[in-house]
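User: Reviewer 2 asked us to show a designed sequence for the structure in our supplementary figure. I'm pasting the structure tokens here. Could you produce the per-position amino acids so we can include them in the response letter?
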């Protein structure tokens, strides 16, 4: 039993050693990869490559190692976040379009693997930070809003990142009232941040980001001389730092960022109180923190830059000419390789102030005028960026998705494009051919079915009706009657209907209301040339309504009979025909401008009986309106099937 325990313990130790070796390897790899960024500036000079190209290669290398399994997924995502922050501290900036392409694999891993809102926020935070540091405030605001949309509906501390960028945007526009308004709306959540640290509710990224949030709000409070809010923020930072040093003692990034926040707020307090001693105390503390070996390198670089800026301002304000000139020259060297007009404006403004302190008023005025020209250029560029924001709102998300998919599928697409295209064409041709063949066969079968049906109706129904007619005729003869009985007439009508139905089934031609109107128009056109009369056909019908062969022949005969009667018996110069339909009713009005007939005269000669019989066979309604001596009118209504 003891042997089994020892074996089990040995396996545990081996497993632990493997884990420790893996952890060490991952840490070493992270350090090596991060160290590449430190060499970028020197490497690009040696090989003639741009800083951005070198940084892009480093970022691509992370993704390659992740795909190879050298980096775990979480390690890859965390390393990407830290690396992009480090690039930012080295003032390595990218255009928005280039940045989207470079980060497309990173974005794909986050969205495809459902890593949650915090990593999505980190992605948008990278884009927003790059936009901010490049002076593209419109883009920064857009990505802050994208972050806010990701946390909409979520509870907890997901507000930290988007709120941080929103207040940063308002501070950059000197809209400190808007920042403090956001603080008041979220005051309870912000003041509870130390308790969230104490309860381990914040991961390392969010804990670090709270330092930015508190810095921006405290800065706005001191700028607006709202000392009550400033005191609340100072207290919150102090308590959060105290808890972080106990609960998150290994998270040096967050701890030193919070320490830097306290110093930044102390500096702003000194400016708000116009206290040189407080300002110098903040500068002294920042200098000590920048020399602390535990301070993260990117933060140390940022502090060194800030120290030059703060000391320049301090010595200019104190009129310490030698020290001011030294730091003005130093900060000019820092900005020597930048093309940002705002940076150039700041340096030029400092030079103008230094010249003024030395009593060189004309040179100071000329230099200040140049600074004004630079700030006007910066403002003009900012206006251009504001218009870019509108474009980004509509396009950026779609571009991100398209670029992410294109990056992953490009190699496979190039190889398979020709094959897929050829296959698609063949499939399309085969599909069209199959459809045409099937359609032709269906039409042939349908025509054959119609012919068989017509033949069966004719062969089966006609003999039976003919036999019934013979019986009715024999009965009439036996009774000594000469006129056809009503039964015989009905049988004749039924046989006529069946013949018409068989005609419809055998024929490819399907008659319509339009065909009837066209036939009558042709008849009137021919007769009007001989008879020298005018006619007009008024149509308000659905031309596509179908008529059976029986309806078509009977209606045509009725209308032709009307025309014949007019020609034979009326003194006229004009014929009018009106066609209209309402739902399944076809209405026809026929009229001429002849005299009609008097009540004393016989109307047998105009064929009204013949028309009436045909109309009865159609089960139609007819109204004959004799308007003697101003002509007559026939109203006909037929139900369409």
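Assistant: Here is a per-position design you can include in the supplement:
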């Amino acid at each position: 039993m003891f042997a089994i325990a020892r074996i089990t313990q040995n396996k545990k130790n081996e497993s632990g050693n493997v884990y420790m070796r893996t952890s060490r390897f991952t840490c070493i790899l992270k350090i090596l990869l991060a160290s590449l960024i430190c060499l970028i500036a020197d490497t690009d000079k040696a090989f003639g490559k741009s800083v951005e190209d070198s940084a892009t290669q480093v970022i691509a290398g992370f993704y390659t190692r992740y795909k190879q399994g050298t980096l775990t997924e979480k390690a890859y995502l965390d390393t990407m976040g830290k690396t992009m922050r480090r690039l930012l501290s080295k003032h390595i900036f990218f255009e928005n379009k280039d940045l989207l392409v470079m980060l497309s694999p990173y974005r794909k891993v986050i969205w495809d693997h459902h890593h949650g809102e915090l990593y999505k926020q980190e992605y948008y935070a990278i884009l927003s930070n790059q936009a901010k540091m490049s002076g593209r405030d419109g883009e920064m605001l857009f990505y802050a809003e994208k972050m806010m949309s990701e946390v909409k509906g979520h509870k907890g501390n997901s507000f930290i990142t988007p709120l941080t960028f929103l207040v940063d945007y308002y501070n950059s526009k000197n809209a400190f009232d808007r920042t403090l308004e956001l603080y008041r709306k979220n005051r309870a959540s912000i003041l509870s941040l130390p308790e969230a640290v104490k309860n381990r509710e914040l991961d390392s990224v969010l804990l670090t980001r709270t330092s930015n949030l508190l810095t921006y709000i405290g800065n706005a409070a001191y700028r607006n001389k709202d000392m009550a809010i400033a005191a609340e923020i100072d207290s919150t930072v102090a308590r959060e730092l105290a808890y972080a040093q106990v609960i998150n003692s290994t998270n040096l990034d967050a701890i030193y960022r919070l320490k830097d926040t306290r110093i930044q707020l102390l500096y702003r307090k000194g400016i708000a109180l116009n206290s040189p001693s407080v300002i110098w105390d903040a500068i002294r503390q920042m200098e000590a923190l920048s020399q602390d070996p535990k301070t993260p390198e990117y933060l140390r670089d940022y502090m060194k830059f800030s120290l030059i800026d703060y000391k320049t301002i301090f010595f200019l304000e104190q009129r310490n000419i030698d020290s001011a000139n030294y730091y003005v020259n130093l900060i000019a060297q820092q900005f020597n390789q930048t093309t940002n007009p705002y940076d150039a404006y700041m340096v030029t403004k400092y030079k103008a102030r230094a010249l003024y302190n030395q009593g060189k008023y004309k040179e100071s005025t000329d230099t200040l005028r140049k600074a004004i020209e630079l700030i006007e250029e910066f403002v003009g560029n900012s206006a251009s960026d504001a218009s870019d924001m509108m474009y980004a709102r509509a396009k950026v998300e779609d571009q991100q998705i398209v670029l992410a998919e294109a990056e992953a599928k490009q190699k496979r697409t190039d190889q398979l494009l020709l094959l897929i295209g050829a296959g698609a064409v063949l499939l399309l041709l085969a599909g069209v051919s199959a459809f045409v063949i099937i359609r032709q066969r269906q039409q042939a079968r349908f025509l054959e079915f119609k012919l068989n049906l017509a033949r069966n109706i004719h062969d089966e129904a006609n003999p039976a009706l003919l036999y019934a007619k013979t019986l009715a005729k024999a009965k009439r003869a036996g009774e000594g009657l000469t006129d056809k009985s009503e039964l015989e007439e009905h049988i004749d009508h039924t046989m006529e209907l069946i013949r018409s139905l068989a005609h419809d089934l055998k024929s490819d031609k399907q008659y319509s209301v339009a065909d009837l109107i066209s036939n009558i128009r042709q008849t009137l056109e021919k007769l009007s040339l001989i008879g020298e009369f005018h006619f007009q056909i008024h149509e308000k019908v659905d031309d596509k309504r179908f008529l059976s062969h029986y309806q078509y022949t009977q209606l045509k005969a009725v209308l032709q009979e009307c025309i014949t009667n007019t020609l034979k018996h009326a003194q006229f110069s004009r014929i009018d025909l009106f066609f209209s339909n309402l739902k399944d009713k076809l209405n026809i009005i026929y009229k001429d401008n002849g005299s009609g007939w008097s009540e004393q005269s016989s109307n047998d000669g105009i064929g009204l009986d013949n028309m009436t019989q045909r109309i009865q066979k159609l089960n139609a309604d007819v109204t004959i309106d004799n308007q003697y001596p101003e002509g007559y009118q026939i109203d006909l209504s037929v139900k369409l099937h």
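For the response letter, you might also mention the following. The chain is about 75% helix and 5% strand. Residues 1-32, 41-48 have pLDDT under 50 and may be disordered.
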